[in-house]
Amino acid sequence: MLYIRNGRIKTMAGIEYPNGQILIADGRIRAVGENVEKPEGAREIDAGGHLVTPGMIDAHCHVGLFGSALRWEGDDGNEEMDPITPHLRGIDSVNPQDECFENARKGGVTTIATGPGSGNVIGGTFAALKTYGKRVDDMVMVEPLAMKIAFGENPKSSYGLNGKSPYSRMAVAALLREALFKARRYAEDLEEYENSGGGDKKRPPFDMKMEALLPVMRKQIPLKAHVHRADDICTAIRVAKEFGLKLTIDHCTDGHLITEVLAAEGYPVLVGPTFGDKTKPEVRNKTFDTVKILSDAGLQVAIITDAPVIPIERLPLCAGYAISAGLEEQKAWECITINPARIMGVDGRVGSIEPGKDADIVIHSGNPLTDIVSHPLYTIIDGKIIYQA
Asked: What pLDDT score was predicted for residue 32?
C-alpha cells in the first residue's frame, strides 16, 4: 500500500483538498480526502503541500512509432505503399524502449493514445497505453481504440507527388468512401451469414482489411480524423454522417473558423500541435485561441502534442499557452486529464483521482501550467512509483 499525505489535491472530480491524503492499494485508489487514515505498514509519501493531480493524458500522439534520434530505421508510423491500410495495428510498431516513454513519465504523462501517422487515407488502429512497461502488451488499456483516417496535404503528398492516387481532396474522400462502402457490405453479408445459422448463405470470403473495419461499422470505435483545414474538417463530418459512424476531430487547426458548425455537430475535438512554427500551408491559421473558443462553445476539447512533433513531456506547457490565450485554468486542466479520458472512453479508469480508479498520480513541484520550471517530483502509475525526481 501507498499513502500520500499533506497534498494539495486537484481530483478533477469536482472537489479539491487543500491538505488531503490518498490511499493506494493493489494499483487502485482506495480513498481520497482530508481524513484518510494511514494503514499500518503502508509506505508514506509526504507531498509537502505540493500540487497533486491525476496523471496527464495525451489523446493523440505517435510515441513509440517514430523513434527518437533515429532516421528511417525508427520511422514505423506510415506504410506508404497503399493508401488504404485499416488492417495495420499501431501496437505492432510501438517500441516501449524509446526514450519518449521515459520523457512522458518524467513529464507526468501517464496515459496516451498512440498509433499510425497520417500518410495514408486509412492508416490503421490507435491504442490507449500506459506510458510504463517492458512490452507493449503489458501497457495496453484499450486496443483497438480508434481507426486513423487522414485528409488534406499528408495523404496527397504521400501519393499525389509520386504520381499515384490520391492526388486531390476528391480522391482522398472517394477512397475513404469506397473502403467504407465495402466494409458496410462486408458487415451486412457477414451478419446475414451468421443469422442464417449456416444455412443457404455463404460466409463472405475473408478480407483482413474489412475485418479491421468491422468495429468502425459497428460503432464500437470511432474514426480518428487527421484534419487541419476547415473544409477537410467538414468533409470528415460529412463522410462520418453518411455512414452513421463515430468520429473524433484531431488537430482541428481551423476549428475556431467554423465554431458554429462544430458546436452544432458536437463531435469531440483534439487540438494541436499548436506550439512551434507554421510548417505547412494547412496550419497557417493555428493559434492557442482555438481551445478557448471551442471550449466556450460547449465542445469536449482535449489538448494534444502529436508527439514527437511536440515533445510529449511538454503537454502541460501547451495547456499553459492556452491559458495565456484566455482559457480558464480549470478548463486547461480538464483538457489534459478528464476530457481526453472521456474522449478515449477510459474515464472509468483514469483522468481523475477517485476511489476505484487506477492510481495514476503526479506530485508536482509547482503548477506545471503556469510555472515553466515546475516538474514532477513523483510519477505514480498503477500504484507504483515509476519516477522520482
From this structure: 98
Name the grid cell of 108. Answer: 507526468
**Residues 6+ positions from 60 with CB-CB distance below 8 Å:** 113, 224, 250, 251, 270, 272, 302, 304, 305, 306
Query: Distance between CA atoms of 269 and 187, rounded to whole angstroms?
Result: 28
Residue ranges of alpha helices (H) inside 313-364 are 315-324, 329-335, 338-344
Q: Could you tell me the CA-to-CA distances from 336 to 57, 101, 350 in Å, in that order?
A: 5, 17, 11
pLDDT band with cut points at 50, 70 and 90 for residue 5: very high
pLDDT for 136-165, tens place per residue? 999 999 999 999 999 999 999 999 999 999
| Buried b / exposed e along 349-385 (16+ C-beta atoms within 10 A) | bbbbbbeebbbbbbbbeebbbeeeebbbbbbbbbbee
User: Which domains, ranges and CATH numbers included, belong to the chain?
Assistant: 1-55+351-389 (2.30.40.10), 56-348 (3.20.20.140)
pLDDT value for 186: 97
From the list 175, 182, 136, the residue with the least C-alpha distance to 126 is: 136
Place of cell 505547412: 280
CB 255 within 8 A of CB 289: no
> How does pLDDT run across 204-245, given as a tens digit for each residue?
999 999 999 999 999 999 999 999 999 999 999 999 999 999
Q: Are 114 and 66 in contact (CB under 8 A)?
A: no
What is the distance in angstroms between the CA of the first residue and the CA of the last residue of the chain?
21
CA distance 270 to 275: 14
Q: Which DSSP letter does residue 358 get?
A: B
Residue at 49: amino acid letter: G
